[in-house]
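This part of the workshop introduces the protein records we will be handling. Getting from the letters to the C-alpha cells is the skill we practise here. An example says more than a description, so a record of this kind follows:
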Amino acid sequence: MPLAAQSDAPLTVSRVDGSVAQLTSAQLAALPRISGTATAHATTFTYEGYDLRAVLALAGVAPVDSLQRAQLRRVIIFHGADGYSALVAMTELDATIGARRMILVDREDGRPLPSDRGPRRMIVEGDKRPTRWVRQLVRLEVRDIPDGAHGLHFHTV
C-alpha cells in the first residue's frame, strides 16, 4: 500500500466495553502535537506526534488519570500491521501513578514515517530498549485483566 493510502487509514481503538472507535488522520490532526528525541538501535532521531492520553480521550476511553480499583487492571495492547504487538499497563500513563509519556508518532526527522514504520508508530518514552515500540500501528486495544487473573499464569523465580 502506498504511503499516502496508509496515512489515510483510520486508527482503530477498541474500548473495554467492546465498542470501537475509528480515528481518522483529520481527527488526530486536531490534537495538540508534541515532539521529542529518541534513540533506537543506535540511531537518534526527532519525532512528532500525539500524546497517547489525548488519543485515548478522543476515542472515548476514560479515565486515563486517577485510576482506581478495577481500573488498575486495565492494559493497552498496541497492534502493528506486521503482526507485532506490545502491552502496557494503563497505570503507566496515569499522571498520578506512572506519568509515562507514550507518543503516537507520525513524523521522524521532519518527514512522514517511511512505509516500513508508518504511517503511525507508538513510542514509549523512557524504555531502554524499543521492544514496546510498535511500528505500522493499526489498532489500540484497551482491556481489563480479569479479577483474579483467570487464564493468566504468573511464575516466580
